[in-house]
């Protein structure tokens, strides 16, 4: 086909417009209605048959399978929730038991410590009382010894004073006799 010029193209377009103006748009032309309705019925029947026998059962099966899977998942989730609740209750129970044991162990340890401290205090008090009794006994002995030597010291002092102040020559025995008479 040879290339067309601008004028030939315009002529072709004008002829097409003129010939189209004579007839209606083919789908709206009443001469084609019967064949169009026939093919519409056949196409609808084939599509209905394919959808009802092949497509829709597959979609229904997928929906049913999904519904079953969701129900199974919900059942599994409720079982897991109940197991988790049981585990939490068991954990809280064991935690309470552990706290009670810890308190009893603490109370027992405190009682043991108090008993140990009381025992140690009693032992230390007994040792201190024994040392105090021993010290009082030594003090008593020293006092008796000092009181026993008091006469000797007084006599020696009296002899020294008499010799030094009065220039007297006094013996220890004489000074003791004088002191013994002064006590009575």
UniProtKB/TrEMBL annotation:
<keyword id="KW-0175">Coiled coil</keyword>
<keyword id="KW-1133">Transmembrane helix</keyword>
<keyword id="KW-0812">Transmembrane</keyword>
<dbReference type="GO" id="GO:0012505">
    <property type="term" value="C:endomembrane system"/>
</dbReference>
<dbReference type="GO" id="GO:0005886">
    <property type="term" value="C:plasma membrane"/>
</dbReference>
<keyword id="KW-0138">CF(0)</keyword>
<comment type="subunit">
    <text>F-type ATPases have 2 components, F(1) - the catalytic core - and F(0) - the membrane proton channel. F(1) has five subunits: alpha(3), beta(3), gamma(1), delta(1), epsilon(1). F(0) has three main subunits: a(1), b(2) and c(10-14). The alpha and beta chains form an alternating ring which encloses part of the gamma chain. F(1) is attached to F(0) by a central stalk formed by the gamma and epsilon chains, while a peripheral stalk is formed by the delta and b chains.</text>
</comment>
<keyword id="KW-0066">ATP synthesis</keyword>
<protein>
    <recommendedName>
        <fullName>ATP synthase subunit b</fullName>
    </recommendedName>
</protein>
<dbReference type="InterPro" id="IPR050059">
    <property type="entry name" value="ATP_synthase_B_chain"/>
</dbReference>
<keyword id="KW-0472">Membrane</keyword>
<comment type="function">
    <text>F(1)F(0) ATP synthase produces ATP from ADP in the presence of a proton or sodium gradient. F-type ATPases consist of two structural domains, F(1) containing the extramembraneous catalytic core and F(0) containing the membrane proton channel, linked together by a central stalk and a peripheral stalk. During catalysis, ATP synthesis in the catalytic domain of F(1) is coupled via a rotary mechanism of the central stalk subunits to proton translocation.</text>
</comment>
<dbReference type="Pfam" id="PF00430">
    <property type="entry name" value="ATP-synt_B"/>
</dbReference>
<dbReference type="InterPro" id="IPR002146">
    <property type="entry name" value="ATP_synth_b/b'su_bac/chlpt"/>
</dbReference>
<comment type="similarity">
    <text>Belongs to the ATPase B chain family.</text>
</comment>
<dbReference type="GO" id="GO:0046961">
    <property type="term" value="F:proton-transporting ATPase activity, rotational mechanism"/>
</dbReference>
<keyword id="KW-0375">Hydrogen ion transport</keyword>
<dbReference type="GO" id="GO:0046933">
    <property type="term" value="F:proton-transporting ATP synthase activity, rotational mechanism"/>
</dbReference>
<feature type="coiled-coil region">
    <location>
        <begin position="74"/>
        <end position="145"/>
    </location>
</feature>
<feature type="transmembrane region" description="Helical">
    <location>
        <begin position="37"/>
        <end position="56"/>
    </location>
</feature>
<keyword id="KW-0406">Ion transport</keyword>
<comment type="function">
    <text>Component of the F(0) channel, it forms part of the peripheral stalk, linking F(1) to F(0). The b'-subunit is a diverged and duplicated form of b found in plants and photosynthetic bacteria.</text>
</comment>
<dbReference type="GO" id="GO:0045259">
    <property type="term" value="C:proton-transporting ATP synthase complex"/>
</dbReference>
<keyword id="KW-1003">Cell membrane</keyword>
<keyword id="KW-0813">Transport</keyword>
